[in-house]
Design goal:
The chain is an alpha/beta fold and 246 residues long. The protein has one domain: Rossmann fold (3-Layer(aba) Sandwich). It is built from nine helices and seven strands. A seven-stranded parallel sheet has the order 3-2-1-4-5-6-7, sandwiched between helices. Helix 4 runs parallel beside helix 5. The mean pLDDT is 97. NADP nicotinamide-adenine-dinucleotide phosphate binds next to helix 1 and helix 6.
C-alpha cells in the first residue's frame, strides 16, 4: 500500500520523542509538509537535524495562551495528530489534585484547544481533513496505579466520537488509536520492571508490547484516504488484549 501526502500540511503534537517523533519522520518521508510541536527545544533541534525539511514549534501545551499563538502560527493544517500526553502514576486512593489537573490539562484540554484551532481552519477552507487522537488501551481496561491516565484516555475516546459526529458532515474525519504498552520513554514509566511487564504481556494474546513503528503505521493509515470511510473509530493496537478480555 502506497500512502502519499504530497501537498498536505500536517501538525504532530508531542513530536520530540517516541511515537510523535517517528510519526513526523514517516509523514515527511511520505511527502507531507510537517510541523513538529513539542515542549523541549533540544528534542526539536535534533529532530530538525535528522529531517531538515520540517518546521518545529516549541510550546508547552499546558499553557493555553501560548498554545493558541503557536498553533495559529502554523497556518492551515490538513492532517493533525494529537499525540502529546503525560503519565504520572498514582494509586486511586492517593490521587492528588495537582496530578489530576495537570494530566487533564495536557492529555485532554489541549487536545480540544489544538483541534478547535485546526478544525476551524479546515472548515473555513472547505477541503476536509483528518485528525488522529493518540489514545491508549488505558481507555478500555483498568490499569493499576493509572487512575488519572486511564480517565484522560477514556475522555480522548469520547472526544473522538463527538468530534467525529460534529466534524464528519464537514468532511473532517476523526479517529483514535489505542495502543498497548509501547517501547518508549513513557512506556518505561509503568512497565520497565519485569514484575510489571510480564503479567501485562501475559494478558496480550501476541505476548509482547508494541513497537513504535506498529503504532505509526496505523496513524498514517487513518490520516490517509485509504481509511476514507473510517470516522469515530477507537482502534486498539494491543495484540488482542482488549477484545479477548483477559
Ligand atoms: P513520550 O515518549 O513520553 O513522548 C511524549 C512527547 O510528548 C514528548 O516529546 C513530550 O515532550 C511531549 N509532551 C508531553 N507533554 C507536553 C506538553 N505539555 N507540551 C508539549 N509537548 C508535550 O510518550 P510516547 O510513549 O511516545 O506517547 C505518545 C502518545 O502515545 C501519548 O498520547 C501516550 O499517552 C500514548 N500511548 C503511549 C503508550 C506507551 O506505552 N508508550 C501506550 C499507549 C498510548 P517532553 O519530553 O519535552 O515533555
Amino acid at each position: 500500500m502506497d500512502i502519499r501526502f504530497d501537498g498536505k500540511k500536517a501538525l504532530v503534537t508531542g513530536a520530540g520523542k517516541g511515537i510523535g517523533r517517528d510519526t513526523v519522520k514517516l509523514l515527511a518521508k511520505c511527502g507531507a509538509d510537517v510541523y513538529a510541536l513539542s515542549r523541549t527545544q533540544s528534542d526539536l533541534d535534533s529532530l530538525k537535524a535528522e529531517v531538515p525539511e520540517i518546521k518545529t514549534v516549541c510550546v508547552d501545551l499546558s499553557d493555553w495562551d501560548s498554545t493558541k499563538v503557536a498553533v495559529e502560527g502554523c497556518g492551515p493544517i490538513d492532517l493533525l495528530v494529537n499525540n502529546a500526553a503525560i503519565a504520572k502514576l498514582e494509586p486511586f486512593l492517593e490521587v492528588t489534585k495537582e496530578v489530576f489537573d495537570l494530566t487533564m490539562n495536557v492529555n485532554v484540554r489541549q487536545l480540544i484547544q489544538v483541534s478547535q484551532i485546526v478544525a476551524r481552519g479546515m472548515v473555513e477552507r472547505g477541503l476536509g481533513g483528518s485528525i488522529v487522537n493518540v489514545s491508549s488501551q488505558a481507555s478500555l481496561v483498568g490499569l493499576t496505579n493509572h487512575t488519572v491516565y486511564c480517565a484522560t484516555k477514556a475522555a480522548v475516546d469520547s472526544l473522538t466520537k463527538t468530534m467525529a459526529l460534529e466534524l464528519g458532515p464537514k468532511n473532517i474525519r476523526v479517529n483514535s488509536v489505542n495502543p498497548t504498552v509501547v517501547n518508549t520513554a513513557m512506556g518505561k514509566i509503568g512497565w520497565s520492571k519485569p514484575e510489571k511487564a510480564e503479567p501485562m504481556k501475559r494478558r496480550i494474546p501476541l505476548g509482547r508490547f508494541a513497537e513504535v513503528e506498529e503504532v505509526v503505521h496505523v496513524i498514517l493509515f487513518l490520516l490517509s484516504d485509504k481509511s476514507s470511510m473510517m470516522n469515530g473509530t477507537c482502534l486498539p493496537i494491543d495484540g488482542g488484549m482488549s477484545s479477548t478480555g483477559v
